[in-house]
Amino acid sequence: MIKKVNKGILFWIEGFSGSGKTTLAKKIKSKINKLYGPTILINGDDIRSIFKLNDFSKLGRLNVFKKYVLISRLITNQKINLIFTVVGLNKKYQYLLKKKFKNIITILIKTNIHKVSKMKIKKTYEEKENIVGLNIKPDYPKYEIILVNNFKKNLDKLSLELINKIKKKLPHK
After folding, report:
1. What is the pLDDT of residues 58-98, one digit of tens each?
2. How far apart are the C-alpha atoms of 11 and 84, rounded to whole Å?
3. Buried-most residue among 12, 27, 79, 103 (CB within 10 A)?
């Protein structure tokens, strides 16, 4: 997994909207920082918002993904780790990621899409169009880590579980 010492590690976290990706990323950031060095967190929704990237079509998603890759390379090339949260769930995108990054760990926060949409955690589900998991079928790639969030466990426990899984996959300093 870690093949280039002079690069940061990309922690690529995917899952449905509302699955807890960003909340868990915030909870593990300081621990990742202690274990692996300087780390920042980026939420794909924030990048979309900042640059007004509102095209959720298939081509639009691909173009946004390419921007995520550029930002991720900019950061990890400076020996800074990056936790990037994104819906993703696409084999082609992950294949491209793995070609571009040697220091990457892919993580899936697995949830039940119907449970998440009923919980009304995100306004995304009110739109009912171009929603991965509802009317866009996810194309699950392979992940190094899969963490199940059934919303029954406390997020602190889930974040500890995630850190333990990361430590098993990556040697730390």
Report:
1. 888 889 999 999 999 999 999 999 999 999 888 989 899 99
2. 6
3. 12
Please tell me the distance from the alpha carbon of residue 78 to that of residue 146, in angstroms, as a whole number.
28
Break the chain into its structural domains and give their ranges. 10-169
Q: What is the model's pLDDT at position 115?
A: 80
CATH of segment(s) 10-169: 3.40.50.300
